[in-house]
Design a protein that fits this description.
The protein is an alpha+beta fold and about 260 residues long. The chain has two domains: about 5-155 and about 245-250, no CATH class; about 165-245, no CATH class. Helix content is about 25%, strand content about 25%. It has eight helices and 13 strands. Strands 4-5-6-3-2-1-13 form a seven-stranded mixed β-sheet. It has a four-stranded antiparallel β-sheet with strand order 9-8-11-12, with no helix packed on it. The longest helix has 16 residues, at about 60-75. The radius of gyration is 20 Å and the shape is globular. It comes from Flavivirga amylovorans. It holds the Pfam family DUF4262. This is DUF4262 domain-containing protein. InterPro entries: DUF4262 (IPR025358).
């Protein structure tokens, strides 16, 4: 699987793969916090089929699954939601859900670029079950796996990977109405939300993450902060500035019709 050193090299490869093979697969490694994922580029233009994204599996499995889906689409298959499909994971069905446009810029960047720098296309998320064949929307689904496979058709009001009930740190002045201007996600996974007044340890409070996001939906814009990263802004109308945010590297986009790369 080929690695790429810059954006122009990736874009050139996308064009070549779509022209030569009919599709491009973009694979992104986990950064240690955010899950790995992969998605197709070219299905919309070449086959009038929604692009497909898979989250939370290793990159080799993701590549194989997306390649298999592409070959089916090339033969005329049209995948739809609310039914199960076999043949992708040994012994398990998968299902598809529609990807909300709210998530396109988070996960489908090169698909947007290839589609005329527009989000005006459809996308499906291929959803895999746990070993007991429970899906993330089932009550018995393994809780830890939800972190690896966020569902991109829902939770538009809460994009964080953790549970809504997660306890996080903030300060009394934030609870009294001050805007959160500094956010830190420490190496242990703790989230800290402060105002411009900083961290006054004497006024530190523990609250539910969901409650902070309800009060300020713009906190969703920095849900992806990796362990040890921070973000800051001047006020609620300003963009977040990320400190030491690593670029999630595209490590493979090779797609051959013989399912080898």
């Amino acid at each position: 699987m080929k690695s790429y050193s810059n954006d122009s090299e990736i874009k050139a490869s996308i064009k070549k793969n779509v022209k030569d093979h009919g599709c491009h697969i973009s694979l992104i490694k986990s950064d240690g916090y955010n899950p790995s994922f992969g998605y197709t580029v070219g299905l919309t233009k070449q086959y009038n089929h929604p692009e497909i994204i898979v989250l939370g599996l290793d990159v080799e499995s993701t590549h194989a699954i997306l390649n298999s889906a592409f070959l089916d689409i090339k033969e005329g298959t049209k995948f739809i939601t609310e039914i199960g499909y076999n043949g992708f994971l040994d012994g398990f069905e998968i299902q598809f859900v529609n990807v909300s446009g709210e998530y396109y810029s988070d996960y489908l960047g090169y698909a947007g670029w290839f589609n005329e720098n527009s989000w005006n296309f459809k996308a499906l998320q291929m959803v895999w079950p746990d070993k007991q064949s429970h899906f993330p929307w089932d009550s018995d689904f393994v809780e830890e796996l939800k972190f690896r496979q966020p569902l991109l058709d829902r939770n538009l009001d809460f994009k964080f990977l953790e549970l809504r009930s997660l306890s996080v740190f903030t300060t009394e002045d934030v609870l009294n109405g001050s805007t959160v201007t500094n956010v830190f996600h420490d190496e242990k996974g703790n989230w800290l939300f402060y105002s411009e007044n900083g961290n006054d340890t004497n006024s530190t409070k523990i609250v539910r993450l969901e409650d902070l996001v309800k009060d300020d939906i713009t906190l969703n814009h920095i849900y992806f902060l990796n362990y040890g990263e921070s973000a800051f802004r001047k006020d609620k109308l300003s963009d977040w500035i990320i400190d030491s945010h690593p670029i999630r590297k595209v490590i493979s986009d090779t797609l051959n019709n013989d399912n080898e790369s």
